[in-house]
UniProtKB/TrEMBL annotation, chain A:
It holds the Pfam family HATPase_c. InterPro entries: HATPase_C_sf (IPR036890), HATPase_dom (IPR003594). It comes from Rufibacter roseus. Residues 36-136 form the Histidine kinase/HSP90-like ATPase domain. It comes from the Bacteria. This is Anti-sigma regulatory factor. Gene3D superfamilies: Histidine kinase-like ATPase, C-terminal domain. SUPFAM superfamilies: ATPase domain of HSP90 chaperone/DNA topoisomerase II/histidine kinase (SSF55874).
UniProtKB/TrEMBL annotation, chain B:
CDD domains: STAS_RsbR_RsbS_like. Pfam families: RsbRD_N, STAS. This is STAS domain-containing protein. PROSITE patterns: STAS (PS50801). Residues 159-270 form the STAS domain. The lineage of its organism: Bacteria, Pseudomonadati, Bacteroidota, Cytophagia, Cytophagales. It comes from the Bacteria. Keywords: Phosphoprotein. The keyword Secreted does not apply.
């Protein structure tokens, strides 16, 4: 996998979410992603960035255009230094939420992207990496 | 700044004003479309009078001191009004910086024989003018921020109209991102209107919502539940193809809520729920034209 471009965007307030989503849309449009794939990627990113704000107290997002076997895609990395997730397996279950939300953020985001990786250490923070390829496969 | 230079500047006031004005008028950045020359002249004279008076006081170098209060007031007024009128930062700051050159020339004439004093006085004058120019910039930015703040407030106010589309049917077009604060405004406006009009059906149109994630969905579900408690049924319309697919993948359950792709089909559905029949009038098009008063 080759990284074609990368940039960073800090997320501290709710207003940053809109800016972040618009930036992803620009990147996805640039590689010619279809509208459905774009919407899936943006929605997944929106879920993760909201989690980051709500539970992680904000953090940094990395936006990258990557390429594998000459198929382009968008990779997003969400890094926060919040309290971390105690039980990742449980958090990935549908309907589980420590807040009062629907509990669909993490599992839903996973279903909306092609590759999903979550690392969390209690007390040190959480890092989530997602990739969605242009062709959606 | 010593007494001699203050006195020199005072005696040359007329000349300073003249040169300063001609400097400003020569500047390519001068916006005579935004401000008349007469206005500029009056503003500059007022400012210069106050500045020369402040130079004469004992604490001339401290721009935070009392003597500078009228000057700071004038500067604040000038930069705020310029920020609102749409001057650029460069245009605004060149106002005070163009005076610097004129003042240096006068001081140079006065202390031609005494370079050491000239140097000291120029430095001291520079210091004052620089800190005044910072005041200008600070207020300029404040003025701009006020404009932005006002626009933000206006935007959140106009963004949630509740429309009465038919007797007993309300429509609420939601545009933009639906965050917690917006949901609160939307929900309040809708519930109030349901009470005021006694409507039985409310159509929430989300055509203008770019992203529907689980938080937005949760807010929508809450709004629908609240409306139901008041005896009104909700229909969510404007669900685009890509949003429908995304909602399914996310696993959001909207099966208990009526949803439609377009506002038109939602309206049609509300008609049948209220047993209203809309039929095309029979007769010639000529008759229809008369009916509409053409």
């Amino acid at each position: 996998m080759i990284v074609l471009s990368k940039e960073k965007l800090p997320i501290q307030r709710e207003q940053d979410v809109v800016l972040f989503r618009n930036r992803i849309k620009e990147l996805a449009t640039k590689i010619g992603m279809s509208l459905v794939n774009q919407t899936k990627l943006i929605t997944a990113a929106s879920e993760l960035v909201r989690n980051m704000l709500r539970y992680g107290g904000g953090g940094i997002t990395h936006l990258e255009i990557v390429s594998r076997n000459s198929i382009p895609g968008v990779r997003l990395i969400f890094v926060d230094e919040g309290p971390g997730i105690k039980d990742v397996t449980l958090a990935m279950k549908d309907g589980y939420s420590t807040g009062k939300s629907l509990g669909l953020g993490l599992p839903g985001a996973k279903r909306l992207v092609n590759e999903f990786d979550i690392k969390s250490e209690s007390g040190k923070g959480t890092t989530v990496t997602i990739i969605r390829w242009k062709n959606g496969l | 700044m010593n007494k001699e230079s203050a006195a020199a500047l005072k005696s040359k006031k007329k000349q300073i004003l003249e040169n300063w004005l001609s400097n400003q008028l020569q500047d390519a950045a001068l916006r005579d479309d935004l401000m008349s020359v007469a206005e500029l002249q009056q503003q500059s004279e007022e400012f210069l009078t106050a500045l020369i008076k402040a130079f004469g006081t004992s604490s001339a170098e401290d721009t935070d001191s009392e003597g500078y209060e009228p000057i700071r007031d004038i500067l604040n007024e000038i930069s705020i009004s310029r920020a609102r009128q749409g001057f650029s930062p460069r245009e605004t700051s060149s106002y005070i910086l163009s005076l610097k050159e004129v003042l240096s020339n006068v001081l140079e004439d006065r202390f031609k024989e005494d370079p050491a004093t000239l140097y000291r006085e120029i430095i001291s004058m520079n210091k004052i003018m620089d800190s005044l120019s910072m005041v200008t910039m600070e207020t300029y930015i404040k003025g701009r921020e006020e404009v932005i703040l006002r626009q933000t407030n206006e935007m959140s106010e106009i963004s949630t109209p509740v429309i009465r589309v038919w007797e007993g049917i309300l429509a609420l077009p939601i545009i933009g991102t639906l965050d917690s604060a917006r949901t609160q405004v939307v929900m309040e406006a809708l519930l109030e209107e349901i009470v005021a009009t006694g409507s039985r059906i409310a159509i929430l149109d989300i055509s203008g919502v770019p992203t529907v994630d689980s938080l937005v969905a949760q807010h929508l579900i809450k709004t629908v539940s609240a409306a139901r408690l008041m005896g009104a049924e909700c229909i969510i319309s404007g669900i685009r193809a890509e949003i429908a697919q995304t909602i399914v993948h996310l696993g959001i359950d909207l099966t208990n809520i009526y949803t439609k792709a377009t506002l038109a089909s939602a309206l049609k559905m509300s008609f049948s729920m209220l047993n209203i029949q809309v039929t095309r009038a029979t007769g010639t098009s000529q008759n229809n034209k008369q009916n509409f008063g053409f």
